[in-house]
Amino acid sequence: MNNLVNFKSFFKFLSRNKTYTAIDIFGLSVSLMFVILIAVYSVQELSTDKYHEKGDRIYVLSSEANTGSAYKLAYRLQERYPEIEKVCPVAPWGFYHTSVTVADKNFNAELMFADTTFFDFFSFPLLVGDRNHVMDADGYGVISESFARKVFSDSDPIGQVVQVNDSIRIQVNGIMKDIQNSTIPYCDILMGIKQLKYMEEGIDSDQFYNTGAVNNFIMVKEGADLLAKTDDIVAYFKEVFWMYQRGIYSKVLLNPLEDFYFSDMGTYTLAKGDWQFVMILLSVGILILLFAIINYINLTVAQTAFRAKEMATRRLLGSSRGDLFLRLIMESTLMTFISFLLGIFLAIFFSPYASQLLNARINLSDFVTPGYVLLAVAVILLIGLLAGLLPAIVISNAKPIEVVRGTFRRQTKMVFSKFFITFQNGITIALVAASITMVAQVNHLIHAPLGYKTTNVMDVPVESYKSKTDIETFANEVSQLASVKRIAFSQGTPFNRGNNSTEEINGKQVSFQVFKADTAFLSILGIEIIRDNHLAGPKKVYLNQQAMREMELPEDSPSIKVWGQEIPIAGIVKDFQLSNIMYQKKPVRLLIKNDIKEWTPYNVLLEVEGDPVESYKDIQEIYERIGHVGFEGKYIDTQIQESFAAQERTSRIVSIFAFVAILISLLGLLAMSTYFIQQRSSEVAVRKVFGSTNSQILYRLIRTFLVYVLIAFVIATPIIWRFMQQWLSDYSYRIELSPLIFIAAGLFCLFVSFVTIFIQSYQAANLNPVESIKNK
Questions:
Q1: Is 334 found in the same domain as 404?
Q2: 86 near 117, Cβ under 8 Å?
Q3: Of 170, 173, 174, whose CA–CA distance to 162 is shortest?
Q4: Could you give the angle at which helices 321-358 and 645-679 cross, rounded to 10 degrees?
Q5: Which of 109, 279, 308, 565 is least enclosed, having the fewest CB within 10 Å?
């Protein structure tokens, strides 16, 4: 047994074979870094909302389309159905940051409104305050740990006043840990749901208007079956809720909170996860780890001639085959342990970058628990076993007589490496092809024509300004900038889709996206008026082509009847895309009013020329100086690009993994080709003696490895083609999958393999045959 745990000879072997050691440890440690980061992220995602003490009894109320509802509707349901223990309307107000005032200083803050039962529903940690009474009074509020640190530093925030607007004045009554790993998004300030009426007119109406911002959470009593009452709830909603009375919605769904994050249910304000993305991460992470294990197996098997001599000597000195087998497994486990420690350090170092890339907080410290430590030990043992099993079988089965004769090397030198090299190249080709396809598709989406101008147009939200005077002052000052050509005022932009309003038009229910703007809005965005009825007056209503189609009216119709009132149509505008190219076409109503004294703009659009970066800085300086709040303006093309952040994130991560796969594969191929050429040095010398030229020998050496790349290409291409076809099918606006993508991926891997093995092959082909034979 002492012989088993004595690794002196193993470390001596590693020190003599530095290339082998460096490649093995680098490949395993980098792979384990990715595995650790991916595992932490995936566990966080998959455990979303699984930690609430009463989570198994909490449901998210929704229609068949989305979770948008009216908060007073929840209380009506609680009164009507005894199965309901309590309700909690939640309204995240994160469309834009809101400017709040604390001790005469302005700060941007993310607001959320909720019922007083919030901390009874959800097990979010409350750092300061009584969770049973922290929101009892209308004027009480709870702030996040981050907001408390940013605004109050080391002073005590409890009892301090936060002025949200002229009507909302909040007294800090508690501090909560930052909300994370939940479908309920992060907020800086949590306050009572009754305050919501001061943010949005009519939202507390008994007619249940403005139903997009509020999400109703329902807790059922233990043993109660509210799901059996959904048909009855639909019937009740048809009596009291206009969205059901008008036939816009026809179903009521109760979505379990614990499953909601990854569900397909739509929502305006709740956070949603991407199940497919998590599965892609896990799959690619496992592939990267498999790469490193294969490299270890490949290189260890390639070293069998050197290790077999040592093991044969041990056999002759009395060690059994089982002793040798166990020793080799322990050696691979030791290598895995060393690599795992390095992987942890790398994961700690790169976790901020991973958090930024994944748009999530990766908290490695949360996983330093006895359970996860035991799991890590089990993973190390498993990887050590998998990595060492095949080399242990091969080397421990070596007969001392075969080692002495030199026949053992010839039997084992390329049996396993052929398969592993082919497998690695196949996966690498697949990842490169997937990366190219994803990048091309994302660029296709970002640069899709939207029917309006998106370049050099900045959208500046001005809802954070305290008064219309501030808005006008800002507009006047930026108009003096040489880089600003034109200015427009609006409520909503094509990207943020404006407001939604469902109305009865000529007896038919039509859901409009509604914008209010001045005439400069149309010209700056280049929205084309295809029919102008040349109406006079300060107020004009334009409709898009989609609206006319859904109302089943000809484009020359002079007016429409809205709730029985005749509204003249000023003209028809050409359809333009709302949000991005993936959003379905919707009816649009544009109300053009040039005098902003009669209405309050939410957005200022600026047409910019010259250096966009310098223009941005100039506009930002003016905005922050006037409003004393953080600037949130963005160019529209930037907004569109950011709307595809999830797709860009996926393609970027696959590209990173493709690079890592190429790197690990390249290093493995480098080491394998080195040992392979060393083993064939005698053959090369003999061929040169019998007249083979350097170029002929070089060709034979290189061909052996390049054939494996070609085989991998033939196997991998149809498989990855099918996967990418399926991935692209999720997009109605997509690229055509070209064979050139896969040819490029194959040629790239072929080129990398060629460059990797060329140097060793060239040196071997030009070596003096006398030296090779003498060394043998």
A1: yes
A2: yes
A3: 170
A4: 150
A5: 565
